[in-house]
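Glypican 5
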Amino acid sequence: ETLETLIRQAENYTSILFCNTYRNMALEASAAVQEFFTDVGLYLFGVDVNPEEFVNRFFDSLFPLVYNHLINPSVTDSSLEYSECIRMARRDVSPFGNIPKRVMGQMGRSLLPSRTFLQALNLGIEVINTTDHLHFSKECSRALLRMQYCPHCQGLTLSKPCMGYCLNVARGCLAHMVELNPHWHAYIQSLEELSNAMHGTYDVEHVLLNFHLLVNDAVIQAYLNGQKLAEQVNKICGHPVRTPTQSPPCSFDPSKEKHGMKISTRNGEETLANRRK
């Protein structure tokens, strides 16, 4: 649930970036943004999707929008073939520099540990649920009852059994569970080590909530190299048809919470790292 909230918030940050800064392409970009974060969620929750593929797909979809609205804003081509050509040309002309590779690296380093952490937690829950319903013999039931309530018969309600007696009863009654103990301790230790390592570029919260900043850097880089990119695209795809373009405006108000676009403040208690600990 915490991860789902984090993914929604990161998606909102990215949508707000387009709505506030690149308003003309916000409506068209919304599908690519939604698809990207859907894939992030699917990967985190165990579905077999490839982070490298969905990162590439996002930037492939972004390039025609940047090209038509920022690099060549006064002309457009109505054919889907031309937009598809621009999309396919993205990997050849590298309009966003090394930012897609940076995103791939960050996603790979942060999503995989988080996915593994979730799978490990689910495994722990299964083990706990399995061992939470132990059936004791009559002898064990009597010993546990005696250990818990014998002092009460003498009016010593605050008295607790001595450590030696407690351990003897536990060892005798849980002897068949002893073999689980070293494996459980190893599991807990591995979980702690994994959790402790999930910071910086391995912290999925940091990576997802800062994704929109890298997207902004990518768009700016393409815009600054616009003339060179236009020449390269013209060589690959030809010249677009010269007709005036009227882009649909951003259709949602980022200040309204009903659209799911409002950024909530996050305090230290709400961070994923604290919940993980």
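thats it. Residues 99-131 form the longest helix (33 residues). The chain is about 70% helix and 0% strand. bye
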